[in-house]
Every structure is written in C-alpha cells, then in structure tokens.
Amino acid sequence: MTSIAISKPVHPRARDQLRFITCGSVDDGKSTLIGRLLHDSKMIYQDQLAAVKRDSIRHGSADIDFALLVDGLEAEREQGITIDVAYRFFTTSRRSFMVADTPGHEQYTRNMATGASNAQLAIILIDARKGALVQTRRHSFICSLLGIRHVVLAVNKIDLVAYSKVAFDRSVASYLAFAAGLGFSSIVPIPISARHGDNVVDRSAHTKWYNGPCLIEHLESVDIQSDTASQAFRFPVQWVNRPDPDFRGYAGSVASGRISAGDDVVVAASGRTTRIKRIVTQDGDLVHAEAGDAVTITLEDQIDIGRGDLLSRPTERPSVADQFAAYLIWMDSDPLAPGRNYILRIGSQTVAGSVTAIRYRIDVNTCEHLAAETLSLNEIAFCNVAIALPAAFDPYDVNRKTGSFIVIDRFTNRTVGAGMIAFPLRRATNVSWRAPSVGRSERAALKHQRPCVVWFTGLSGAGKSTIANLVDQKLLAMSRHAMLLDGDDLRNGLNADLGFSKAERVENIRRAGQVAKLMLDSGLIVICSFISPYRSERDMVRSLIGKDEFVEVFVDTPIEECARRDPKGLYSKAKAGEIKNFTGIDASYEAPIRPEIHLRTTEQTPEQAAEVVIAAVMARTLLCDERR
Amino acid sequence: MREVAAEFKRPVMLYSIGKDSSVLLHIAIKAFYPAKLPFPLLHVDTNWKFREMISFRDATAKRLGVELIVHVNEEGIARGINPIDSGSALHTQVMKTDALKQALELYGFDAALGGARRDEEKSRAKERILSFRSAGHVWDPRNQRPELWSLFNTRIRTGESMRVFAMSNWTELDVWEYIMLEKIPVVPLYFAKQRPTVRRNGATIMVDDRRLPLNCDETPQMRMIRFRTLGCYPLSGAIESDATTIEDVVAEMQTASVSERQGRLIDTDEAASMEKKKREGYF
Q1: pLDDT at residue A367, as a whole number
Q2: In 3D, which of A67, A72, A146 has the Cα closest to residue A110?
Q3: Measured distance CA(A24)–CA(A112) in Å, rounded
Q4: What is the pLDDT of residues A405-437, one digit of tens each?
Q5: CA distance B161 to chain A (A)
Q6: pLDDT average, residue stretch A293-308
Q7: Are A330 and A346 in contact (CB under 8 A)?
Q8: Rounded distance, CA A297 to CA A234, Å?
Q9: pTM of this prediction?
Q10: How far apart are CA A338 and CA A358, in angstroms?
Q11: Does the bond joining B34 to the residue before it have cis omega, within 30 degrees of 0?
C-alpha cells in the first residue's frame, strides 16, 4: 500500500486476508450480522459480552443485542443508526477478515463508497420480507463502480418468513434482475437469520431446502486472488531517502507487479529510463520486490525523481496526460462547481485540477444517464477532468491503486469527491501555447506604465461600479491606459448565456478572469467590477493573473446599507422572491480575508475611496518607472 | 509513515513505551533506513508509570539513537494531581489529555503518529487512519474526512493538527506475532514474573513503589503476574500468568477470553468513556 497505514506483517503461517463490506438498508440487520460473526467466531471476550448484556437491558431488549457490540458511537446508539464506517477484525482457522460496517442510511452513501474502496467482497443484506429496495440497488451499484467483483446476497430475517423457500427465491430473483448489468463475477445468495445464527457459522436445520454453503464457509473459500503481483509493475515514489551525499534512494510501496534488481524502469512523467541498482531494506538488500512490499530503490543513473513520480517498466507504461475521463462521487454538502479549481490527489501526486465538463449524471437507482450542471452530495457522474500538470495513471478497472483519486477543496480542506479514472483524454496535446514574440513588458513599456488588474469585489449595491468608474476617469485624466470590465456589461454580451447558479457564477468569473488577463498582457491597467462572491474563484483569478499584478479591492458595505441604497431595485425584488440566488439574500458572499485594499463605504465617500485605489495603483507604477 | 514525514511540517511520534509503540518505532526505523528517523519521539509522562517502563524508554532511545522528548504537565504536578487521590478520570484528563495538548502546542507539532488500533475499543473502530483535530485538539466523529483507497488528505491550516493511527488495522494478536517474528524488545512487564501485588476492586495492582497507600489490612503478596497493557501502575490491572516468553504470550493470546482493556481502570468509569475522552483530545 502506498500509504500511511502499515500493512500487516506476513506471518510464517500466513493466512490470507479477506476484506469485505456489509451493506444494506436501515434495519436490514448489518450490525447484528457482524456482531453474530464476531461472537460465533469466538472473537468476543467475556468482559465485552457482559457489557453488551448490560447495555441490551438498558436499551430495552431482553436477548443479547449483537448490534450493540459494533455500534460504537453514543449518538448512533441513541438513533439506532450506524453513521460511519467501522472496521472489525476476526480470524478463523482458514482466513483472517477485515469487515467494514457501512451505513444503510440514504444520506451516508459517501461512507459506503469509503468502505467499498478497500474491499474485495460485499455482503449485501436484504430483508426477506421486503426484497431489494432502492438503497440496496444504490449500494450494489456503488460496489460495482468501486471495483468489487464478488457479492454475497444475504437474505436476512428468514426466520420472520417462517424459513420460506418461496420468499427467499422471490428476494433473490428481484435482486438478480437488477444486478445482471453490474458486472459482478459471482453472486452467492444465502438465506440467513443474523439474530438466531441460521446459516451464519453453521448450516441451519430450518432451511433443509437450501444446499449451498453457510456464510462463513463461503467467506473462507471464495477465491479473491486479484493477483496484484502479476499486474504491470507500478512504484509510486513516496519519499526521497537521502541520508548523506552518497546515498539517494526512492522509498515507497510496490503498488502492483514485481521488479528485480537490474530491471529497466522508466519515470512515467519525464520518460527517462534507467535501471534498478539495489532494492534496499534494513534487513539487507532484496533481489525482487512485489506488490505490497515497502522498499527503498536505488537507480543506476542520477536522474531527477521526486515524490509523486511513478516508476514502471518501459514496456508497460501508464498513461501520462493532463486530461482524463472519470467517474466522480461527490461527498460534500457544497455541490461541485465545474470549472472551479480543486486539489487532486492521484497516488502520491498532488495537483491542481478542475472538472471541465459533466458528461452525464448517473441515477444510481435506474442507471439512467441524466444531464447535469452540477453535482450534489452522494451524486455520481461521468466527467472530464483537467489537471494543471500531466500526471501518470492507469484506468481504475485495470489498477485500483493507480486509477483512483480524491478531490480536496482548497479552502475547507475537506475531501469533497472521489474518482475512478476511465481513460485519458488527449485533446490537450493538440492545443499548445504559442510562445509570444512580443511580450507583456514590451507592450507595457510603450505605454510607460506597469499593468495590473484591480479587482473590485463586494455585494450588489456596495458601490463597486461607482468607485471603479471614478478610478477609470482619474486614470484617463492622468494619461494612463486603463479599461473597465463591469459584471453587468459582460453579462449583456460575452456572458449572455450564463445565469446565477453557483456553477454559472464560477464560469462567469472564469471568463472575466481570462479576458482581464488578455488585456493585462496588452499592457493595460484593467479595472474589474464583479460581485465575485466566492473566495476560490477570486483566488483562481489571482493565480491566473499572478499575485504581483493582482490588486483585490474589497468594497465593504453592510448588507443593510446596500439594501437601503438599492440602486437597481434588486434587493426589494429579491426579498419579494422575484429573483433567485441573490447574493446576500439566498446565495452566500465570502468576504476576502486579506485584500490588498479594504474600502469601507460607510466611512469614506466614493471620491475618497477612488483616491485610495489610485494611490495604490500609482505606487506600483512609480516603482516601475524608477526602476527603468 | 513516510507519507507523514513527506506531507507535514513538524511531525512527532507518540511513544507510550507499550508494545504497540515498540512495534511502531521498529517499523519507523525500517521505513526510513538508511536515513535516521526524520521526527522525534514524544513521551507524555505522568510520573506514575512503572519504573521498568522508564528505564526501558531511556535505554531504547539510547540504543536506537533517536531524539526523545519527555513532557510532564508541571501544572498538574503543582496542583497535586495523582491517580490515587484525584481519581482515574481527573488524573487522566490532566496528566495525559491536557499534557499531550500542552506538548503538541509547545513544540508546534502538526501531526502526531500513534500506535492505537481499531480492535481496541468500539469508538476506535470508527477512527480514521488520519484523524483531523481542530485548533483546540477536538475530535468530531461526525465531521471526519472520508478515507478511500490509500489516498490521504493531509491538508490542514495553521493550528490544526492530525493524529495518525498507522496501525489501525492491526489486532493485538498481530502485534504479538510481529514482535515474535521481528524479535522486537518490549518492556519486561509483559512477561510473567513474581511481583508484589494487592487486590483492589477485582483488579490486581502491582506495588511498584512506596507511593501506593496500603490499607491497614493489606499486605503486598507475591504473585506470578504479567500485564497486557501498560499505563500508570496504580491504574493498570495485571493478569495472573505463567507466560514468560513471547511464544508463551502468543499462545496465551490465542486462548484469551477477556479483552486487553479489561485491565484498564480508565475505561470502566462510565459508559462510552473512551469516546468522551477522545472528543476532549485524548489520543
């Protein structure tokens, strides 16, 4: 594993480990089943069992409630819902098991995906009385999407339908009809009662009509050899080990395949080839290393390799691209904004990126493809993704380790999405940058000024346009070449196709930023006046323009004052509900944290405010003049 | 572990001297070989640890040539906090939880690696491998970052920190089997020996020094005991055992019928006590 977590030791009498998840709807009995598995495989100690007996009585049940063994957090005990992923361990004489107990509650799909991402098998529980439900289908789809190929269909509470074969067959048929298209290589239906233990560890006397294995038998014997060692060799460099000038090693864990000292390798991103010199461990050098081994590799040639680089064999290279198509699961309460700049982690590579297009959203209940402009929590889509620098990867269905990525929000630092790469997009290679023969500085020199972008942000009615206009006039009077870009004006022309949803606001600012950059490159002082409510978009423009040329001006006016001024009559319309997504009323405004200029219009006249801005712009220009 | 060294500005490894810490340290040394450990060890001492633990700690740091920071909550000492008069809850809060926060802030550590395992306790089962703590070291179990595959989100702001549980997926038996396999030195208290003990509230407590007040009807008795977990000696219950070698311990583990935390008096104070402690910043 290329990870923080340390893989288990390999014992001399190595048992293999099966990682599985349990999923199903609320009250299908997942926690009870896991409690039962732990109890019947003798993994519950006396003191833990005594505690559960006490708790069972406190929670009002007469029998031992096995779910109480695994429902860890107080809050969920009270609600009776598992709200997060819990990991459990048990061992039989044939295998050891790691169980992810994943939630059935509809809004916690993201946790399910989390549990499924590291699992080889899924136990999908359905209630024999109810058959497959909407959530059952959703969970099966997610399991399939995350690459799980083996399913156990546990038809639970078989005792409550009098151990009826008819009810079992009906449940199985309803499930198979749905699961046929999901690409599972095995689906094994088993009638069980988690509460009473039927067909869990021992075959039940109540289901004589059932000839298949009991649950534990199947889990012990199912063939899950994904055989990562026989796949193409992949080694993500985690850390450069350089204790002294004579030693330079690359530390990491082999993600897949195997390699030997003396083998040729290539650094994916740079295409440089070299040969493995040594495979170093504290217990002595190794001849081979294979999937799962944590090693330090040294190479024959001194080539530039850093954290995030991926080593492979020259004959089996991964894709290297700056655009790819991927399935994306959205995991945050703030929806995805296409075009917004996020941070992506692909293996040990960290890179800025954005979703450039949502090809379609997938209805997880019907597998239908739907049009979408944005993605909300728990929604799944097939998207085009662009990243700032080319990265090395494989398709997810070929390699789960090198084909997966997570999406991180720049500001909240939350993990907002998880993706599975489908294939690289090569379009980018056909549109390359034209190296300009005449640059920004030459054009600016002609105008005897230092160009910059002065970006006014603030609520509607804060006074942005008024102050920006004054600044424009004053610069003209001073024979400076400036250009004013106003949000309203752009929305009448270039951005006439955009509305006011979050996704459209992001696109509005992206286009404005690009236009401002073209004007900046032509040597102008560009005055921009946009509400630009989101910090991440303003920062996107800042990084596009370059922080030395970007002057953020926060026109700070309390919303009450803006609403009182209401120069365009918009606040009264918004309050009457005639305008939707109005900033400050039903859409948020994220104030700048450290703007270059902070104007408080309740304390300054527009004239004074404009002078403050002019002084700042001229200070930059003068500085530039002196240097010349 | 290398991920932590690569992604954080000032990581630290929490070293509790116990078996999990011994394994974690052993693996860290291997992970960075031939380089030295790129982070120091931190031991939060309460002044009530077994004497053998302290001598083992100092010997280990010397043997491996690693930087060891020992932090004691002096304020707690000044207030006279101790496990006997203050009760286990207050003692743990002040001398362990508060002391850990103090140490992390004092040295500006932004990531703390520890050896906690998911099989130890119910609320631990839901813990992430990378566990985010807000600026006040608070753990919010409802607002954890999802962890998919082995891709970790290591981004934090100034003042925030991460607890890193690299051994989350190990079990107690895995730990002992690994200690046996790799011949890792551990504190001798894990092995059975005749030791002076008294019985209290159903637990067997070792009389490690004179600070343990004895009731008038108590006289320490020699018993053949060992420990499954180690902490402050007045709070650590021993088990009667004849397991004097690692092999014996592993064999005993395979037939054990009570959990390792049973001997820990800090867990039995109240229901869900571990979860409460964790929300307040306990490791």
Answers
A1: 79
A2: A146
A3: 10
A4: 999 998 889 999 999 999 998 754 444 445 556
A5: 12
A6: 90
A7: no
A8: 13
A9: 0.75
A10: 8
A11: yes
